[in-house]
Amino acid sequence: MILFLAILFLGFAFLIAAGVPLSFSLFLSSAFAMFAASDLPMVLIMQQVYKGIDAFPILAIPVFFFAGDLMNRGRVSEYLIDLCLTLIGWLRGALAYFTTIVAMVLAGTTGSSAAESAAVGSIFIPNLIKRGYGKAFSVALVACSSVIGIIIPPSVFMIIYGSYGNVSVIGLFIGGILPGVAIGVCLMGVSYYYARKYNYPRERETVAPPAEILKAIRKGVWPLGVPLILIGGMVAGLFTATEASMVTVVYTLVITLFFYRTIKFRELLPMLRDTGLGSAIPMFCLACAGVYGYLLAFYKVPEYVADHVIAYTTNPSLIMLFIIGVYLAIGTFMDGTPAIIILLPITQKLGSTINLNPLHLGLVVCVTIALGLLTPPYGLCTLISCAIGKAKMTDVLRPMAPMFALMLLIVFIMAFFPDLTLFLPRLLVPDMVPLG
Hints:
The chain is mostly helical. The chain has one domain. It has 23 helices and no strands. The radius of gyration is 22 Å and the shape is globular.
């Protein structure tokens, strides 16, 4: 067993250090450990690869990706920007507020922070810089705003956590609303401070007249229907999270094909092909992480780690801090998708030992691992935003520091005030909130 685990862990670390993609590192280290130091049949690998994605809620991931692609290619963000400009363009630093607001709205369609970082960044970063906002601040704001895409529903991390951890995906979706909105408000607060300090410009000198406001609302209100339909339908019990992804696609198709007319029917087939290719990457990563996670569970690594932590302390606060620290650490060099699958047994074992509510624990984990999208060296949202803004990551980290600190504060509030974290799920979907 010791030899097997040594090969499994060291092989994975070596492959990652050698620059092998994460999915292949997980798969190859698992396969080599089984071949060299295990009596398990090799056919088990392919069985676990298939089992890793054989879950109905997982189907929602490529569907939400397609909905996000429709929104991006349909230039829906342009209508949202016009709406924001009309409503609050007279505020100093309004374009920074628009960035966060648009990210919060688009979060209801993409389910992916990487996709949102590319979509929002390509629109806002050049415009922010052109209007006199600092390059480092512009990149940091877009990167942090993009993280909201994996917190406000739909969220790929929540789909994965709920599917593998036997926790209500709808409950996680509803529970992600308040933290996502709180992060958005904090980012707008930081933008307000920078706007006052550096005298960032207004987008218009006066409040828009009523006729202009009504015109902007008629054009820009349609994207707001996505999160309303998504959340309203799940709360009313009309559809599951997976079915909600289908409804989101249908609604998005209607507004982009018929209301905005920014997408043609002939474009749909290439978009479906691109979505299939794009979603194959996280799906393959899920499958490979499933193999790695199965081997850890088979050799009872989660129980071993959890027992040692519990032997040291049973203080709920310390264990919660340990869980947050582990996810923050692993998020600096690994994508959240395999991290959740690999660490989930340990997390839930520790949570059950101190009687943590499974939904509460899942929400804390999903928001914590989302912060890993900002922290180097992995920091996918930061890397994408830096590439778009042609900025050095070392320069971006300074304005990002207060934003990250506020986001981390929200994680701690979620962790140590469970009643606040579970307020919306208990109010809207009480049947999906387990006791604990």
